Amino acid sequence: MKYELVLVRFGEIVIKGRNRNRFETMLLTQIRTALKSFEKLEFVRSYARVYIRLNGESYERVAERLKDIFGIMSFSPVIGSELELEAIREHSLQLIRRLSARPRTFKVSVNRGWKSYPHSSPEMNHLVGSHVLRNTPDLKVDVHHPDVELKIDIQKELAYIYCEVVKGAGGFPLGMNGKAMLLLSGGIDSPVAGWMAMRKGLKVEAVHFHSYPYTSEQAKDKVVALAKRLAYYGGKIRLHLVPFTELQTKLAQSGHDNLIITLMRRSMLRIAEKLAEQNGALAIVTGDSLGQVASQTLGSMNVIGRSAALPLLRPLVMMDKQDIIGYAERIGTYETSILPYEDCCTLFVPKSPAINPNLKIVERAEAMMGGELERLIDEAVRGTEVVVLKDGPSGDDASERPEDAWF
Ligand code: ATP
Ligand code: MG
């Protein structure tokens, strides 16, 4: 008998004890959910790994999906062979023969998880290696730098034979490390920051500030499209759409032209923090990258960051734009991010935004607004609408308050 399997290896193996069990259970559930359209698959859990029995489903299509699941370190297409020597030899030969890139050299590495197997590992290396050599005239053994390493893992139930190891997305299962609010604009950076946060095991809820009617319906559609792409990785994304027009207009009237962006960002963080509290999130994630624009200098980050008590996570802070673009392309957000749109922050862009805002002056400007600032912030939080986005066609999405228009 021969089984076509995929061996999936879990990541971050330093985790031990009860947490490991929790980690593995979460990950297995997420793998099952991501692969639920492949109805014939069966899952067999084993320590720090899971075997997926393909039962006729396409390995290539399953592999495409597996590559994007966080917490998976690597996976391999595997033949599950019965334990008779002849079966192992024959399946090993078949596996080598069907490799698309024809190897010139190989070696066999046998691991005996089941110690009572009648042949020792060195014996098995020889018994299988000689059979492969006899039947593939061009192939040679190279124990130091082989083109292909044929691995045979002998367990009590089956021998698992494979030679390909595909790198997974890494990180932690989604939600394993809690929840964060992602400040999602329509730009290139924040979707990448969101993907990185999710890869680190954070469930994210997205927050977008809009200045309707000054920002358009298209600007909203763009953010929805980005959030939907993140939902491909994150299962389901709740997108909070925050009305920012009134607050923004008031801040623009504060008489500190060069501080508008600083003031706006501080208010955004305060609103995000309130939404975090309402939704059980313990951090705020942004797409800030050091030095990219005036609001992302160290001086600005300092003054802006002080308005929030929650940890501010900036996964891109030390990255170059080109590298960020590379990620955006890889995760499938770039094409959407570069569509033209107006952001609420581009509406009131001052001629010379402060690159080193003075905290005292900023605090004084806010104090001058008295209770009005707090009132406008609370109003924005109250007026926030939530859309739940899923990967796939838009028909699947739902507004949590269907009677409300989004804007
Ligand atoms: P991005 O490409 O993510 O828009 P950016 O380089 O354009 O980033 P900014 O516009 O200065 O930089 O924004 C910095 C960060 O502030 C963004 O990455 C995002 O996290 C947050 N942000 C900016 N505008 C908005 C918005 N309208 N709604 C939600 N978050 C926003
Ligand atoms: Mg932007």
UniProtKB/TrEMBL annotation:
It is found in: Cytoplasm. Gene3D superfamilies: 3.30.2130.30, HUPs. Keywords: ATP-binding, Cytoplasm, Nucleotide-binding, RNA-binding, Thiamine biosynthesis, Transferase, tRNA-binding. Pathway: Cofactor biosynthesis; thiamine diphosphate biosynthesis. SUPFAM superfamilies: Adenine nucleotide alpha hydrolases-like, THUMP domain-like. It catalyses: [ThiI sulfur-carrier protein]-S-sulfanyl-L-cysteine + a uridine in tRNA + 2 reduced [2Fe-2S]-[ferredoxin] + ATP + H(+) = [ThiI sulfur-carrier protein]-L-cysteine + a 4-thiouridine in tRNA + 2 oxidized [2Fe-2S]-[ferredoxin] + AMP + diphosphate; [ThiS sulfur-carrier protein]-C-terminal Gly-Gly-AMP + S-sulfanyl-L-cysteinyl-[cysteine desulfurase] + AH2 = [ThiS sulfur-carrier protein]-C-terminal-Gly-aminoethanethioate + L-cysteinyl-[cysteine desulfurase] + A + AMP + 2 H(+). It is an enzyme of class 2 (transferase). Signal peptide: none annotated. ATP binds at L183, L184, H208, F209, R265, G287, Q296. Its EC number is 2.8.1.4. Belongs to the ThiI family. GO terms for molecular function: tRNA-uracil-4 sulfurtransferase activity. This is Probable tRNA sulfurtransferase.
